[in-house]
Amino acid sequence: MWLLVLLLQLLQPSDAPIMQEAPPSLHRARAPVRQRGRRRPPETDDAIFRWLGQVLPAHWGEVLDAGTGLDSLTWLAASPATSITAVTASKTMHKDVVGGVADFLDPSADIVLIGNWQDEQLLHGRSFDVVIADYLLGAVDYFAPHFQDGLLRRLAGLVRPDGWLAIVGREPDDITAKDATSQLILDANALRDASMTLSRQMTYREIPQWWVQERLGALGLQVREAKLFPRQVTKDKVLGRLVWAEKEIRNVPHGSLRASLLKHLAGLRARVQASRALARGHPFGQDYAMLVQQSPPQQGARHGLSSV
């Protein structure tokens, strides 16, 4: 290539601009929705998925959805992946995903597995061109307590040397918020978490972006692209949290305490239904997305060892 450039420079007039190769850009136009199964998946309206679709390369190759759900797998079914391997630790989620997304998938190339990332044999020896961790870190404590570091190591080990790791997460809520609508959202979340704790379950715990980036750096990974997305909390979203809370309250072993929690739940539900701010959508919190690759080796380093 450099010989061709040199020859062209010699043939050009002295005042002509020197030809150079333009650096490739990560950002691309949105690709059309593809069909890989019996039905074409719907086009996503999720801002984070749309952004990832623009910054990831045009050809995704083999893709791992490391903490799959209906939303992420439906989006991936429309992606330029050659194959999709999806993993969930929940039998209920596995049933929901298979039932809800199966028609969008290619049964000869795509698979949905039940597994826990604490199991070292899960996908042992496999590697992928793109690994998606969609709100997975926030769910770790429920399925694999205190395994956030271990999960990042597992995911990093599954990414091919020139591949990509995409991490989507939620910044922890600001529990000092003073306005009434934000406090109502916090009250709904607190009721769910308290009920889970009282029924001897681990709660979900959101992990901030700064912590994730710090741990990625320690693993030799580099954040190539990152973006924050303001969160708009709707009435349906908070009511969904209260449905979840009610399910957890039913597992609280003490009858009188369970009755008090159900009474508190009814009061919260009435307040949410009456909230005009939630009906419009209330700005509260933010989510983040990061596109990560292995860091390039340092100059002078050979086979992973720094020169002395």
TrEMBL record:
Keyword terms, alphabetized: Signal
UniProt cross-references to InterPro entries, sorted A to Z: SAM-dependent_MTases_sf
Top-rank taxon, per record: Eukaryota
Protein name: Methyltransferase type 11 domain-containing protein
Keyword Signal tagged: yes
SUPFAM superfamilies xrefs: S-adenosyl-L-methionine-dependent methyltransferases (SSF53335)
Signal peptide: 1-16
Organism: Alexandrium monilatum
Gene3D superfamilies per record: Vaccinia Virus protein VP39
Keyword Signal: yes
